[in-house]
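#lab-general

N.A. 3:47 PM
ok so I finally got the sequence cleaned up, no stray characters, all 448 residues accounted for. can someone with queue access submit it? mine expired

B.Y. 3:52 PM
send it over

N.A. 3:53 PM
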Amino acid sequence: MHFSKRVEFIRRLVQAGAKQKLVHALEKLGTLQSARILRQLRAYDQKLFLEVLLAHPLLDQILLDLSYEALPEVLAHLSNEQLITILSRMPSDWDWSFLEQLPQEKQQSLLEQLPTTQREKIAKISQYPKESCGEIMHPEAMSVKASALVEEAIQTIRQADPQLKVFYLYVVDEEGHLLGTVPLRSLIRENPETLVSQVMLGNPIAVRALDARTKAAQMVAQNKLLAVPVVDEAHHLLGVITVDDVIDIVEEQATEEMYHMAGLSKDDRIFAPWWRTARKRLVWMSLNLVTAFLAASVVGLFQQSISKVVALAIFMPVVAGMGGNGGTQSLTVMTRALALGEIGGREVWRVLTKEVLVGLTVGAITGLATGLIAWHWQGNFYLGFVLWLAMMTNMMIAGFAGSMIPMTLRTLKLDPALGSGVLVTTFTDVFGFLTFLGLATLFLKYLV
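B.Y. 4:20 PM
back already:
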């Protein structure tokens, strides 16, 4: 069924108040598709949608799958009492994700109406910095004392909240310090009368609450974990970050880096208001305009050469375009490597040398092909020779710029992807025009 037809089908079920049919249809579609449909409904139908499903836990998952820019708009249809109904069903880390999207005064009003234990859990999560491990952790980590028996540990898991995701059992001492972990499979195999401390894996991999959340993603990926515990400075167990949280982190990080490379804000999404998108893009586009005039000024230095050999204007975009593409390739590889922590201090110059050599090789081959085409087309060997030299030089510069710019930004404690695409393109345009037109001017008497 076409997406627009699905939206219309759901709208009719909502208006008819057919709760059972609506739930059945949405379960078949899945929560992600259901969230997309909710976003497409008109305001009145969105309100009906929320009212019909208010008492059903499926609504919680649909709301969680809404994009951050759409969530405040949808939540605005709910009264405080209705929001409390939804929040009371959710884990505290999800509660905070919701509350963050609401105005400050409404946040405070809702917090006052929540049960004391839930309010305290939310308060703990909200105290951590943005994009830290503490902000995204689940505070309900499954743990037992080191003195517990395997049988007692299994009973603890059985009695836990069904919504709690359990991948590992964490072992703590009497003061709550993290001592080790026990995979569930190992727990089931052991003798029930064995002490948990005898079967645990010591020296557990953990992240601190104030660490950047990307560190948790790296830990999970590098060590093939399903979850990683979160501890404080004294190594007390505070919570856990699970593999599905890591998937969200990786997705957001990939989106953010892709956006930054293009000079976009991470909040620039498809359904964001046009005026907000225009305002955010204008900053980088203004910088791009400045760099475009910089490239244009380089071309202006060689007006006389271009006027004498008009064919130069034909091949200028080829030199700049190939350099831009080569620089973007180096930039993409380098940004990914920096994000995954694959490059240390010793590898920097080796990687830089490799990218320059790749640029030299690719430039020599593609430049030779371009030079032969120019020679055949324009009937001038020296034009082809100048093109070959210019493309080879510019591709070397592209490899250098694509590698050096993100490393320099990281050294300055900035996001390596931050506007790198704009900067690399500037380098390849300016030096591409400079080398091509500069060499053409040197060989001008052979080109005329």
